[in-house]
Amino acid sequence: MHTVVAVKNLLVQSGASWVLWLLFALSAGSIAITVERWLYFRSKDDDVRALAAELDAHLSNGSIGAALDALRPTRSVGAIVARAGLKLAQRGSAAADKGMQSAIAAERKALEARLAYLGTLGNNAPFVGLFGTVIGVILAFEQLGQATGTAGAGAASQVASAAVMAAIAEALVATAVGIGVALPAVAAYNYLQRRIAAMLDDAETLSNLVLAYLATGEAARSFAVEPVHAVHRGAALDKPANGEAPHPEAA
């Protein structure tokens, strides 16, 4: 019981104003992260169709170096992933695929940085505001108890009623502020998540283009080598064991 009284006295003394200041600070952090992520994503934007067409033209000509030069100026996620695959092109399509998957994982981690703050704030800011409201209600009933103990019956009723309504009205402000902080954070989180999904889809498009080129090149090389092996095997079967030229059969 003494613990409950001590906690009540602490909450009454602190009031709910600090909860509002906390929500304002959390909202400022949310705005800062949203602006920073928007600027970062903007630097990663690029015309993936034009980039894919240029990449396809270079790869169709078998010029990996020219393709790398075309991808080097851009900072887009797709270009970074395609470069990772082309740098491993000489080691085969499997190595290039692994390199591009690693690049996608690294880019996803960079894109999702600090987004957990927005998601957490969007889910919990209303509860922080509700906590301020609860403190305000406790303060209202504390004022009601004090007014009842110091005033007469009729005066106490009027004073208590006015005090409780004013205190509860002030307490509900904290809930409203909490909801007001949560809504922009949720909207920003969902928007940025959609941007991330779109950029990763673009990266997947370019990585599939690179893998298609490498697979086609490997198939072409295998078809070019196979007939040569077949000719050598046929010549080896026709050659006599003693190395002498075969004698024509008698008519």
UniProtKB/TrEMBL annotation:
Report the subcellular localization: Cell membrane; Membrane
Which BP terms does GO give this entry?
protein import
A Gene Ontology CC term for this entry? plasma membrane
- Is Signal among the key words of this record? no
Signal sequence span is: none
Provide this UniProt record's keywords sorted from A to Z: Cell membrane, Membrane, Protein transport, Transmembrane, Transmembrane helix, Transport
What residue intervals traverse the membrane?
Answer: 18-39, 115-141, 161-189
Q: Name the InterPro entries on file.
A: ExbB/TolQ_transport, MotA_ExbB_proton_chnl
The UniProt record lists the MotA/TolQ/ExbB proton channel domain at: 81-203
**What's its membrane topology?**
Multi-pass membrane protein
Family named by the database record: Belongs to the exbB/tolQ family.
Name it: Biopolymer transporter ExbB
Organism of origin is: Sorangium cellulosum (Polyangium cellulosum)
